[in-house]
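Structure first, sequence second, as always.
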């Protein structure tokens, strides 16, 4: 039985709205700290973390920024849940995205550990909760991006984003090493680089979600072209279609082309671990 076009349209309009909310949350967060950089000049951005702005007179702006980006991240989680068919492979990154959104909010509620007059850190229960929330946020986004790489590869509407998911996951995994390697005088700049990668990943995910097309729709001449972030898009307006036996046809220039001519669109027996491995080219399982 064919699903009516109207409910499908409303469903994807809702997904696009959620994607826009994610982008707006990231934009508000970035704009807040850009403004704080000029307003609160006593903190050197090269040496201090962005969370330390919450200890100043404009701390309420930091709390609001974390809350807004947290709500935007939760909107992206709902958008992912709505745009995919139910399944454990999708449920895991959706849950991780929700955890990331809640972690953003917790970061805003609990302020970071303050610096004492002698230059040492004064540890407080709120500060410890802040650090733990940051760690949970960091791990949730990394693991979620790795798993989403495999999920995106199995859905024609998301072809082109799986390569970006892998790159962002590896970037978020490697970037924190900068905070250990750089001198103390530039640790704040290194932390901003890590945050920038995470926020850019959320913005790209929201942008793609905002431009998402239902697979049932037929592209028209007036339909805008959706640019791809990898070689999986062959430059045409129409996305690759599903064959009659429910297998997706892999483009010749696809990195999957050397393994098989066709690949199953839905493989419920694949485990989360296999999808995680699929996200790392050197660990891909040859079929």
């Amino acid at each position: 039985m064919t699903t009516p076009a109207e409910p499908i349209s409303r469903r994807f309009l809702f997904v696009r709205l959620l994607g826009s909310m994610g982008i707006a949350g990231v934009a508000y967060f970035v704009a807040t700290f850009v403004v704080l950089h000029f307003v609160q000049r006593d903190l050197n951005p090269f040496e201090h973390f962005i969370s330390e702005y919450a200890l100043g007179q404009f701390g309420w702006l930091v709390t609001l920024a974390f809350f807004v980006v947290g709500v935007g991240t939760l909107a992206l989680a709902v958008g992912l849940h709505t745009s995919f068919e139910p399944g454990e492979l999708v449920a895991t990154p959706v849950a991780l995205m929700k955890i990331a959104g809640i972690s953003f909010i917790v970061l805003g509620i609990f302020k970071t550990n303050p610096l004492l007059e002698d230059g040492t850190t004064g540890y407080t229960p709120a500060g410890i909760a802040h650090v733990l929330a940051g760690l949970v946020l960091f791990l949730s986004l990394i693991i979620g991006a790795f798993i989403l790489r495999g999920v995106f590869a199995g859905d024609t509407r998301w072809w082109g984003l799986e390569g970006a998911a892998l790159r962002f996951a590896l970037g978020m995994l490697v970037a924190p090493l900068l905070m250990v390697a750089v001198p103390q005088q530039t640790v704040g700049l290194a932390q901003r680089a890590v945050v920038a990668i995470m926020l850019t990943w959320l913005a790209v995910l929201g942008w793609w979600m905002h431009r998402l097309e239902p697979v049932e729709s037929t592209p028209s001449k007036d339909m805008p072209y959706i640019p791809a972030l990898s070689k999986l898009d062959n430059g045409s307006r129409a996305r690759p279609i599903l064959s009659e036996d429910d297998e997706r046809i892999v483009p010749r220039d696809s990195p999957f082309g050397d393994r098989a001519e066709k690949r199953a669109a839905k493989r419920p027996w694949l485990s989360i671990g296999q999808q995680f491995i699929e996200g790392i080219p050197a660990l891909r399982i040859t079929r």
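Margin note: Strands lie at 247-249, 262-264.
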